[in-house]
């Protein structure tokens, strides 16, 4: 049986709240501590770099996927267990999801939102049944949660859409949800 793999979407910047970085470190350590593989965007900057370094330092396996045009910008982290370079962003996202059993979305920017909405849409369409966990550190994703409720309230999505996403306040909560989903 292959190792349980968790795709983590997160910022290529550290963000304004030091709690984001602390939780990135905690998540990387926790994934490695459970013997799970981190799948992520292969960057060595921002929260991406922190979660990967924490997983590596804790002895975890890492699987990074980066498009060729971001190798310099996101400082491609080449010392990962697996380092994949793709031609496009779309291919990057596809390879990440295909190599993961679950998805965690940490605080991030437009790229993290793009990744989240793509996996949510794929889940809604029945293209995968992987758990999606939002790591809502210090309420970072509260406006997004309200938006999703609004989309459903206004009749643009079935209420089942909300069931595809689980919410955690921190790395411990995210790990608990992942463990529950895995069993």
Task: Provide a descriptive summary of the structure in words.
This protein has helices at 18-33, 46-57, 89-98, 110-124, 142-153, 160-163, 171-182, and strands at 5-9, 37-40, 62-67, 82-86, 102-105, 132-135, 165-168. It has a 7-stranded parallel beta sheet, sandwiched between helices. The protein starts with a strand and ends with a helix. α1 runs parallel beside α2 (46-57) and α1 (18-33) packs parallel to α7 (171-182). β5, α4 (110-124) and β6 (132-135) form a beta-alpha-beta unit. It is α/β, with parallel strands linked by helices and 183 residues long.
Number of helices: 7
Q: So what's the overall shape?
A: globular
> In which order are the strands of the major sheet placed?
4-3-2-1-5-6-7
Distance between the termini: 15 Å
Helix content: 40-55%
């Amino acid at each position: 049986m292959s190792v349980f793999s968790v795709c983590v979407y997160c910022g290529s910047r550290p963000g304004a709240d030091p709690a984001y970085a602390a939780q990135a470190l905690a998540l990387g350590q926790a994934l490695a501590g459970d013997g799970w593989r981190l799948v992520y965007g292969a960057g060595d900057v921002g929260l991406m770099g922190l979660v990967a370094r924490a997983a590596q330092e804790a002895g975890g396996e890492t699987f990074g996927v980066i498009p060729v045009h971001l190798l310099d910008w996101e400082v491609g982290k080449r010392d990962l267990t697996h380092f994949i370079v793709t031609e496009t962003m779309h291919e990057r996202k596809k390879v990440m999801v295909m190599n993961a059993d679950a998805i965690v979305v940490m605080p991030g920017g437009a790229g993290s939102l793009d990744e989240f909405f793509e996996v949510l849409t794929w889940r809604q369409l029945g293209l995968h049944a992987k758990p999606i966990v939002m790591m809502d550190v210090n309420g970072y994703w509260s406006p997004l949660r309200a938006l999703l409720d609004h989309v459903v309230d206004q009749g643009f999505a079935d209420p089942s859409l909300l069931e595809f996403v689980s919410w955690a306040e921190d790395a411990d909560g995210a790990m608990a949800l992942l463990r529950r989903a895995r069993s």
